[in-house]
Every structure is written in structure tokens, then in C-alpha cells.
Amino acid sequence: MRRDSESIDDSIRLIDAVRAAAERRVPLRIHGGDSKASLGRPVEGEALDMRSHSGVVTYDPTELVITVRAGTPVAQLNAVLDEAGQMLPCEPPDFGGAATVGGAVASGLSGPRRPWVGALRDFVLGCRLITSEGKYVRFGGEVMKNVAGYDLSRLMAGSFGCLGVLAEVSLKVLPKPRAHHSLRIGMSAADALERIVEWRRAGLPVSGACHLGDALHVRLEGGTASVQSAAQRIGGDEIDPAFWIALRERRLPFFNGPECLWRLSVPNGVGVEALPGDVALDWGGAQRWLKSNAPASSIRRIAESAGGHATCFTPAAGVEPFHPLPAPLLRFHKQLKQKLDPHGIFNPGRMYAEL
């Protein structure tokens, strides 16, 4: 079992900061590398920088589990796993080395493998959390079976730090695939969605499917024989696998430009909708990136009609970043916030003004 000799446990400082904020009823702006500062509403409060609380706590490659502190850079986590021939399959973005593990979990962002391996929250086994009372508590564990009662550790995924200070997280990891192959095939978006469904039914080892411009980009991963067979069946031109990193990190030319960037999350069986702007399909069609300056209400109406929701990924005047919640769901969110953060000190308003 590996322990990182360079890891830094800064939990005492963090606990003291939370207790002091709770006593004074002062809001905290919890952050790591601020790589996702533009995603969500701005938070007014004292900064609580998590980057000093970092490093690998334990890592047992034979058990496929790693526990790291929240301030650990995602790039460092990936490097440690790569040395052991393993990976975090949901491939959260590292945004040039700035993203931290705590921020990755808090935002819940997943990469191109999401539809085939699961979301980031599916790989969270447990966590240590600093509560609004300044208590250092553990939820979950380090095995998949160790879940009893409410699974609060996975509840942290996508919470944007609004429920507590995520200090430590245990993650399920997997071996890296033995073979991989990336292809580009010229076709329309509508044809691409049909082909993806066909390949899924045929059990082809697809782990990435993105339609961009006039072509479908496909990633195959798995055993050598199965990948070679699938590549021959699919056809197309081989491309640099770095395409998937650029897509994950939003570094492709598509993501440049003055327009607002929207992400529409819809069922992957939904056909190609007429969207007011340039569109790229990821996650086999379940995630649709849209560059547009159309009214937010129009974009969200389209997303809702397709059974999904829309999130604005770039700051825009007068635009709420997250899709409005139905009244019953908003009421539940308020109750949860009140229960876990009764003083309202953790990233208040980051997701919604009422939270």
C-alpha cells in the first residue's frame, strides 16, 4: 500500500477556519485552483483555499482504490495512477494542471467516457467532510459494499461546495485498457446518432463518440483483438488520440469564440434538434455543446422539450448558470442545505440564489 511522503495534512487549519466562520456567520468561498470559477454564480465570502491540503493518503493498486486529499491536483492523481497502469475512468478535466480533486468531485464534471463507464459520482467510495460545526467526519469507505443509510459521499459530487468542505475522497479506479484506436468518419449528426446506437447494440468497445463539424470521432478501447476488429468494421481515418484530451479540456477550436457556451444534457436517443448556434455532440449525443447568444429562455425551452436541461458554462449578464429547479426539487435542496449547512456559510448562492 502506497503512502505519499510529500502529502500535506492541513485539516487543522481548515477546521479552525470553518469554526471561526460559523461563529461569526461569515460566508466562505471554498476553492482549489479556481479552474471552474466561471461555472456557477459568484460567491461573496472569505476565501478558503484547499490547495495546501494535498497528496495521496493511501493507494492500493491491487484493491483498485485510491484516497487523496481534496487539494491534490487532478494531474498529480492521474500521474500516480498511470505509474501503476491504472486510471480514473470518468476522466475529469484537469484544466492545465489547475483543477484539484476536490473541485473535480464538487463540480461533478466527467469526460468523454461518461456514457460507457459512468459519471464521476459513480467512482466516489467515501469522503471526509468538515461540517458547519467544524467536525471532521467520514462518510462511506474504501469498498463498493460499504454503503449504509444515506450515501452522503456521492451527494458531494456536483454540490459545488454548498454542503460542506470536502477534505478527502476515496475513489474507485480501473486498469488502463490494453489497446485503443481513434477514428474520424465523415457523416451527418443524424447519421452519427444512428450509428452509435447500432454499435452499442453490437457490443463494440466504444468509449468515446463525438460529432463535430461534418464528422463523427470515435474512440475504441479494450482488448487488442476486439479493438482491431471494431476498427475494421467501423472504418474511417485514424486520428491522434489527443483529440479526446482536447475535447475533455475544452481546448478544441470549436470552444473558441465570443458566443456563450452552453451544455445541453438530453437523453442520448433524442434526435438532432434545431439549435440556435454551432453544435458539437459528445457522450454519444447525450451531451450537446452549443455556442450561441440566443436568449437563455429559448435555449432552456429547447432542452426541456427534449427531456433535458441546459447549463451556461460562460459568464453572461443576466443569465443564471444552472437550469431552474422545479418548485418541489428546489424545496428539497433548501431542506438539505439547511440540514447540512444551517448557518449558510458554504459557497452560498454558488448554484442558486436561494441556496
TrEMBL record:
PROSITE patterns: FAD_PCMH. It comes from Paraburkholderia solisilvae. Coiled coil: none annotated. Keywords: FAD, Flavoprotein. NCBIfam families: PRK11282.1. This is FAD-binding PCMH-type domain-containing protein. The keyword Flavoprotein applies. GO terms for molecular function: catalytic activity; FAD binding.
